[in-house]
Amino acid sequence: MAPTSKADRKAAADTAAWLFNVVTSVGIIMVNKALMATYGFSFATTLTGLHFATTTVMTAALRWFGYIQPSHLPLPELMKFAVFANLSIVGMNVSLMWNSVGFYQIAKLCIIPVSCLLEVMFDKIRYSRDTKLSILVVLIGVAVCTVTDVSLNARGLIAAAIAVWSTALQQYYVHSLQRKYSLSSFSLLGHTAPVQAASLLIFGPFLDFWLTNQRVDKFDYNVTSVFFILLSCIIAIGTNLSQFICIGRFTAVSFQVLGHMKTILVLVLGFFLFGRAGMNIHVVVGMILAVVGMIWYGNASSKPGGKERRSYSLPTDRSQRHGLASESSHLDEK
Questions:
Q1: For 74, what's the count of Cα atoms within 13 Å in the CB-facing half-sphere?
Q2: Which terms are listed as keywords in the entry (predicted)?
Q3: Does some domain include residue 25?
Q4: Which of 114, 140, 280, 312 is 20 to 30 A from 265 (CA-CA)?
């Protein structure tokens, strides 16, 4: 009876983690759409810096009250992660500016196969045929309902390549660093958020001026726009934390595959809340296909042989590492 209850608790925690990520991610996208489309606050990189600054305050408070235990992350690992994470943010913004929306969506879909390649190369992961086919179905479904016009240029291709690889590497290292240094999601976020906040708030205004030809300090701030900025920052705490929890509990590939459920929800909410036309039959078919692929992936990857390591080295003190990993998982569940 005990193993069953333990499996049930893990399934419930996994489901809660995904729901937490989906709700906060969709919520912040809706708030940012209103902030940028309605009030003209188009400074995406600076806004992301504010998100990480707010997250830094949250993690500092939790550490002060004893909810986050002291931990260590080597400075080279921290700086490497920060470079990948900031390149991901900047690369995605520049890719959206220089490419058509259709090619931008294709580039985002390419993160999944690149993440698979990283796991195969570094973690010696082997995927079953059903797992590979389910990923392909998700990619086709999301492409059908999101990719429209596609145009290509040299600088846009370079920006997209940087965005794809840096995003895949950043998400891979979230899982890798938690496992390697036995860090909880709160602890890892406490290490990385201050570095990202400082770098993005320093360079973000200059990058936003280059992208939009507008200065963030000249924006017409009013009560409503400031309220939406603060609301975006508050929701971003949950978004950042839930991303680390999900990738830590699963993998970057699973996070990307099942994360496209957020794309589907954003499309549906956009049609209803922002009055967009275009909910036609091929969009609906693409959504259904993507959802079927996600369900298939969940079943295929959880079966024996669906997704497993070919070879890996065991830690010297297996019981000690297992205890630390269990403690990390327990902190995430709390």
A1: 6
A2: Membrane, Transmembrane, Transmembrane helix
A3: yes
A4: 114
User: For the purposes of burial, counting CB atoms within 10 Å of the CB of 213, is it exposed (0-12), middle (13-18) or buried (19 or more)?
Assistant: exposed
| Rounded CA separation 201/140 (Å) | 37
What is the rounded distance in angstroms from the CA atom of residue 245 to the CA atom of residue 289? 27
Work out the mean pLDDT of the chain and round it to a whole number.
Answer: 83
Compute the average pLDDT of residues 219-236. 93
- The β-bridge partners of 307 are 127
In a domain, 328, yes or no: no
Asked if 264 and 141 count as a contact pair (C-beta separation under 8 A), the reply is: no
Structure-token pair, residue 173: 């290292």
Burial class of residue 263 (count of CB atoms within 10 Å of its CB; 0-12, 13-18, 19+): buried
Buried b (16+ CB within 10 A) or exposed e, 229-262: bebbbbbbbbbbbbbbbbbbbbbbbbbbbbbbbb
Q: Is 145 among the domain residues? A: yes
Structure token pair of residue 331? 């902190």
78 in a domain, yes or no? yes
Domain tally, the chain: 1
Above 60 in pLDDT, residue 205? yes
**Per-residue tokens: 207:** 């990058």
* From 28-37, 143-152, 311-320, the region with the lowest mean pLDDT: 311-320
**Start-end of H helices in 110-222:** 111-122, 129-146, 154-181, 185-212
Asked if residue 288 lies in contact with residue 145, where contact means CB atoms within 8 angstroms, the answer is: no
Read off the pTM: 0.80
Kindly tell me the burial class for residue 282, based on how many C-beta atoms sit within 10 Å of its own C-beta (0-12, 13-18, 19 or more).
exposed
- pLDDT for 235 equals 94
What domain range is 73 assigned to? 13-311
Q: What angle do CA 103, 24, 166 make, to 5 degrees?
A: 40
